[in-house]
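Hello forum,

I keep getting stuck at the same step: I have a sequence, I want structure tokens, and every attempt I make locally crashes halfway through. Rather than fight my setup again tonight, could one of you with a working pipeline run this one for me? It's a single chain of 217 residues.
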Amino acid sequence: MTSVSSFGAAVRARVLGILSAILTYLPIVVLLRYVTWEGEPSGERWVAGFKWCSLIALAHCAVFVTRRKPFDRIALGSDLWVMICGALAWSQAWPALEFFGGHLRETGFWIVVFAVSLGATFATPSGLIGANAARSGRLRRYNLYLLTLVALATVVSYYLRGATLLAVVLPVILLSALPRCSCGKAGRTEPRGLRSGRAGGARCLAHRQEPRDHGDL
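Reply #2:
Ran it on my machine without issues. Output:
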């Protein structure tokens, strides 16, 4: 019975994880599914996809940014890319859309994600990994490692343009999993100085609370 219940819990956790990932990246998931619905995507289908999915991305950002928990930075960059392409499509700025969404393709996506990652790393207290303690030494290093990987994905994507699976899907899955691993590792290790500081504070508090012997006064 224990093994069966454990297996059921593992399956539920896996399903919930997949659903959470789909919801986190809902606009771009819908966009890619729409443009490839009938096989090889056409320019007209990309334009229509950018238009309507940009509205989904706008609503998606509005919902997730208002939450207390920091929004996934990669997902935020993904939403912004869809909204930028959607704005170009709605305004009929065809040369800009052709360059940003047609020539750069997957690299345009990563340029926006890198800009968001750069700003999150140096301008927000939670950093790129979205942890409240991102300014601690260990998590700050993880932020810089992750930012380096985003920069590397941006460069590599230029040479993989047209291969969406290799240029976008797989790197996004990897980079989205890394922040959770980073927070988990950092959370399990408490700095020695912090431990000693807490212990010293406890000893000081205990000393202050010791009853005085009024007979010696």
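Residues 33 and 172 are 16 Å apart (CA to CA). If your local run keeps crashing, start a new thread with the error log.
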